[in-house]
Amino acid sequence: MVATSPRAIQSWLVPGLVAALLVADFGLVRGLAADPVHATWLGGGRIPVLVAGGEAWRLVSAAFLHVGGGHLAGNVAAVVLLGRLLVALRGAVTFWTVFVVAAVLGSAAGGLRSDAWSMGASGGVAGLLGALAAIGWRAWPAWDAAARRRFGATVLPWVLLAVASPWIATTFVPDHAAHLAGFVVGLALGSLRLPVRAGAALATLTVAYGLGMAVRHGFAAASPPARWTTVAADGVAYEVPASWVPAPSFDPETCATAHTDGLLVVCVGAGAGVAARALDAGFVADTPTDHDPAPPPGAERMTFRPGPDRRPGQRLVTFTGPGPRVVVVHALTTAALDDRGRAIVTRIAAAR
Description:
- There is one protein chain.
- It contains twelve helices and nine strands.
- By secondary structure, the protein is of the alpha+beta class.
- Strand 8 (about 315-320) and strand 9 (about 325-330) form a beta hairpin.
């Protein structure tokens, strides 16, 4: 485990560059809108309905975005420390390939397992752990005591942290499927002496494309929609931003199909009883706030917050009237009801 001088330089430089990329992407996308949470998720978070709607690049971009500063700092530290060791053992090309492939396949596995949103580099970090575990298993008998101590001192704390993460994470829910898949991918890549240069080139192009799309969509999340399209369904016609995709409706009795940007889900239909169905679905009637969109002329507004059986942070707003017309606005996070979100809802709700 004695590194040559070029390898020693690479062992700091290459993981450091990846860590800088994580920090830069975090700062850029979060700085694009007044509400950074909104911009980050719409910019490149793994939102299942958008991935299913054709935005598969989010499986890449989500691995380079983070929920908050603490989340980012932990993954940056892991990338630098574990990456430094992997570069010293196998080289920079192997490190980069393992990190990207594990991050992307981990993100995909997390999406297959659940419909939860996700972002973060921890799938790639788990891949680094898996590769180091495979390498250490093979090389352990040949290493001297000092080499074993250095290896254990670097790897063991991150293994313990990964095991303890379900109990110590307080601001987000760890994506266990992504972690497990990333570890298995790293274990496989670390066990096999495969030609990785072609894989590294493909990984670089994939990351460049995914991050480019994240920046593009982050800018879009900070600006009013440039194009709108007309939707005719459930006996009514209304406009939605052209970038929105069809989504399951919160209230199929009001409208069979809703449209979403990933954070706001809006459907327009006709009928009665939407308030009762909201209560049956676990929402609780609430008083309006300044963040709730204003009702169109002649409509009655009702607002709801999530009850104890629903995921916190949601908001439901309904407009009933004039006549049988009903608009249901389901904000999957209250961050979606920023100035931009309220302006979009106001335009949809006002259409006749």
